[in-house]
């Protein structure tokens, strides 16, 4: 039995509609991840770049596991953009759970000067921070931008 061209086009149209509708529903139903900076640790320098270890608590308030392909992030301390990094090594964020991530970040020479200047003025102070991150998901889930502000002590 041969299918008519009109029937094949109708079936393809229905399949496309279902796929597009499914992607739309998935995008609308995802709650944003909750990301908090737990601590920032200074690591040994590597040449002209100072390295830091960021500990982030990532909570998934959704009913589905979220496979992450990569994260790019930047951290400002006391209004100065000092840390940047990216990684493709992020574990699966399970549904209704929290995961602590350790991410390495680097700063450039100007960022080091600004940070050292801030620390020398008041070594025991709390730092106000702003974290900007872009999270890229696998499986056609749209990327998510996260911005978080707060205060934290510098840990050595």
TrEMBL record:
Xref: InterPro entries: LEA_2, WHy-dom
Q: Which GO terms describe its biological process?
A: response to desiccation
Start and end residues of each Water stress and hypersensitive response domain: 35-153
Its protein name is Water stress and hypersensitive response domain-containing protein
Pfam families noted in UniProt: LEA_2
Database matches in SUPFAM superfamilies: LEA14-like (SSF117070)
Q: Which PROSITE patterns match?
A: PROKAR_LIPOPROTEIN
Checking Gene3D superfamilies in the record gives: 2.60.40.1820
List the SMART domains: WHy
Lineage from the top down? Bacteria, Pseudomonadati, Pseudomonadota, Gammaproteobacteria, Cellvibrionales
């Amino acid at each position: 039995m041969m299918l008519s061209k009109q029937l094949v086009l109708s079936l393809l149209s229905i399949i496309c509609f279902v796929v597009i509708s499914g992607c739309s529903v998935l995008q609308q139903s995802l709650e944003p991840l909750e990301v908090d900076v737990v601590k920032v640790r200074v690591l040994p320098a590597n040449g002209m770049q100072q390295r830091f270890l960021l500990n982030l608590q990532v909570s998934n308030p959704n009913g589905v596991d979220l496979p992450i392909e990569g994260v790019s992030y930047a951290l400002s301390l006391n209004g100065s953009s000092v840390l940047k990094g990216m990684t493709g090594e992020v574990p699966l964020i399970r549904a209704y759970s929290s995961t602590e991530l350790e991410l390495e970040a680097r700063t450039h020479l100007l960022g080091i000067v600004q940070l050292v200047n801030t620390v020398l003025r008041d070594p025991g102070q709390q730092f106000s921070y702003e974290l900007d991150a872009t999270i890229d998901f696998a499986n056609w889930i749209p990327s998510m931008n996260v911005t978080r502000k707060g205060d934290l002590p510098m840990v050595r």
